[in-house]
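Weekly modeling sync, notes
Attendees: S.R. (lead), two postdocs, one rotation student

Agenda item 3: backlog of single-chain predictions. S.R. asked that every request posted to the team notebook include the full sequence so nobody has to chase files. The rotation student volunteered to paste the first one in as an example of the format we agreed on. Action items at the bottom.

Example entry:
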Amino acid sequence: AVVSTQSGHYGRDEKNHKEGVAHFLEKLSFSRTRNYESPEQMVAALEPYGGMYESLHFKDVAVFIVSCLPDGLDTATEILSQTLLHSDFSSDDIEAARESIACEIEMFKMGADQEPIVTDLVHAAAYNNNTLGYHKICPVSTLPYIQKSDLDNYCKSNYLPSRMTLVGVGVDHEALVRSAQKHFPTVLNEDTSEENVAEYSGGYCYKHDDQPPPSIGPQELPTLTHVAIGFKSSAHQVDYIFY
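Predicted structure, as returned to the notebook:
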């Protein structure tokens, strides 16, 4: 059985928040919550049902997934609810996330996989300073300043029912409905959110780095140039895209 919650928009909604908050939340998925003091407690709760969890994060959506035996449906739904609605980020967890992001940024500087950087720049050019143009990777300029209050404010503003979809695979539909009503009671009827429409602008982004790639062993690594071109296309909601 697989139970998943999809929360729409994600990093594209950083307009009224510090840029990079979404990257922190990616690192803090399934961490400390109101009912679970640590990820280890979540693992222990899912263990009798052979369960596991994971999350996927993109510019416009975040997906939280719990997989387990059918008997663990209620526990899986509770963990999703706790993660989305009742996260309680500790200072230690936030600092660990900050260090992890700093390491990622340093790896990019050392010439590691540049695809995330190039993808970020393509979107920044296509959607200049709005929605999908916001960076998925936390900027160095805001990395030291993101605090618990920034994370809490983002969650309260964006983790809303109008932006969530709860999906179950291999589970009884009525049982899923009952579990959702049990663990999402305070927000099921709430439908308030700020819609941020992606506005395509087009343009270009250029990033130059004078630093040569690091040497690994006696032979120096080559200096590479990365180029990407993107084109405006139809949205996935358009009917004729499937014809």
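Discussion: group reviewed the output briefly. Helices lie at 21-27, 39-46, 73-85, 91-109, 115-126, 148-158, 173-183.
Action items: rotation student to repeat for the remaining queue; S.R. to check formatting next week.
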